Amino acid sequence: MTSRLDQQGLSMRKFATAVADSSWRELNISTTGAVFTGGYKWEPQQQHHGAFHVKGQLSDDDHADGHNSYLRVKVAGYGWKNIKGVQKKSVTVDRVFFDNAALQTNYAETQLCRDRGSLRPDNCSDVRKFRR
């Protein structure tokens, strides 16, 4: 039988883990012609299904190339979602990504790409993988 004090200690550890999960972490990605500077965090289970939250600046890093950039994000069980940039500008990104069928999202991937049009393949950064 556990004492009331033991139960409170366990609850505090769960709370501390949830708070640590929901703190912002650095997320900086670059590829030829594009840069994303910002951060990510895991939302608490009670907010947006414990979403993967991305926030920062998506920037065109080569104004002379005439191409857009985009940030791709996906969570377990779903396809890529693209956040499109604008030529010669920076775009503010503040988006949450989650699995509607789950209480919390535990896995996500991101990738930054330069859209080079339909005749040439896009150039992209390596895929970054995140686990809660």
Domain count: 1
Q: Would you tell me which CATH topology applies?
A: Immunoglobulin-like
Proportion of residues in helical segments: 10-25%
Radius of gyration: 18 Å
CATH architecture: Sandwich
- CA-CA gap between termini: 31 Å
The major pleated sheet works out as: 5 strands, antiparallel
Q: Strand tally, please? A: 9
Number of helices: 1
Question: From N to C, what is the helix and strand string?
Answer: HEEEEEEEEE
Portion of residues in beta strands equals: over 45%
Low-confidence segments, given as residue ranges, are: 10-19
Mean pLDDT: 87
Q: What is the general shape?
A: elongated
Q: Can you identify the CATH class?
A: Mainly Beta
Structural class: mainly beta
Characterize the structure shown:
The chain is built from one helix and nine strands. With 132 residues, it is mostly beta strands. It has a single domain, classed as Sandwich (Immunoglobulin-like), CATH 2.60.40. The strands form two sheets. Strands 4, 5, 7, 8 and 9 form a five-stranded antiparallel sheet that branches. β7 and β8 form a beta hairpin. The longest helix is centred in the N-terminal third of the chain and has 18 residues. The chain is elongated.
SSE diagram, text form:
Blueprint: H1 4-21, E1 25-31, E2 34-42, E3 52-60, E4 68-75, E5 81-84, E6 90-97, E7 107-115, E8 123-124, E9 128-131
Antiparallel strand pairs: 1-2, 2-3, 3-6, 4-5, 4-7, 7-8, 7-9
